[in-house]
Amino acid sequence: MVKIIARCFVFLAVISLASAPGYAQDYPSQPIRIIVPYTAGGSSDFVARTVGFKMQENIGRPVVVENRPGGNAVIGTELVAKAKPDGYTLLLGGSSVLSANPALYKNLPYDSLRDFIPIVKAVDSPIVAVINPKLPIHSIKELVAYAKANPGKLNYGSAGVGNTLHLAAETFCMVTGTKMTHIPYKGASQALTDLLGGSIQIMFDLPQTPMSNIQAGRLRALAITGTRRLPVLPDVPTMAEAGVPEFSFSTWIGFVAPANTPPAIVDRLNKEMMKALNDPAVRKSFAEKAMVVNPTESPEAFKKFIGDEIERLRKLVQTADIKPEG
Fold first, then answer.
1. How far apart are the C-alpha atoms of 55 and 269, rounded to whole Å?
2. How many angstroms separate the CA atoms of 274 and 174, rounded?
3. Which domain does 165 fall in, by range?
4. CA 57 to chain centre
5. What's this model's pTM, rounded to 2 decimal places?
6. 162-184 tens-digit pLDDT
7. For residues 167 and 103, what is the distance between their CA atoms, to the nearest angstrom?
8. What value does the mean pLDDT take over residues 225-238?
9. Cα–Cα distance between 177 and 174 in angstroms, integer?
10. What is the pLDDT of residue 11?
11. Does 299 have pLDDT greater than 50?
């Protein structure tokens, strides 16, 4: 009798597992949502849509990108942290969401290492210093001189307090001994609109966001971080070439799933995303936006990377004495 009961329990467990909506063998059987915690039109949005579209082609299931901005990206991130761990709700997270926020805020409604399972780091991107061309500034040296002569009068925008664009600008100020005024926005695209309109004068941004306006002459790029010039902006010098070799800053973007997502599904997502990232057309699209495809070797390697980044940015936040809003 005991053996019969035991067999029944095993049989029922197998049936229950096999019929679960997230069961790996049937995954994906419904649309996959990628939550982007920023407004549409920015670099994170571009990464999500580029990878998502290629995944959709490859797996034959819809991959939907959903923008949930607000709260310095906390709103969309928390949504995914609390989502059902079945592989159908994912987060497009980057250095701001997964590393800078934990370094800045003590009481976040999510924990980057506890509430998520990393899937893959997708791309890296340098930072470009870009200004409104009405400013009488044509080089980084002139920017530093102007900022020192007019402390606090230059307004720079970012995608929020503690966002990596904010941290990049603060790092520049510390390195050059200058002072500028930070104006936070809900997303980089909104800050870009005000930069074009003249409400702010400068941004330290990912190149892909202001790229078309730089190329059209509506904005002026002064320099980029990184060791090499960008093929899409060949006339823009590196920070080292521009006279500030000690200023080094870059950002990264990747994908994570809610904690407790079955390992088999995480593995499947990792394989599908790697396949998308290695597609020549996808790599070309990222190169044209000044992004470098640089995936981590495994989900475990990505988790370690995130932990190391949190510690690095925590030291930066403390040194720059950056305080969260509110």
1. 9
2. 37
3. 128-248
4. 23
5. 0.78
6. 888 899 999 999 999 999 999 99
7. 11
8. 91
9. 5
10. 42
11. yes
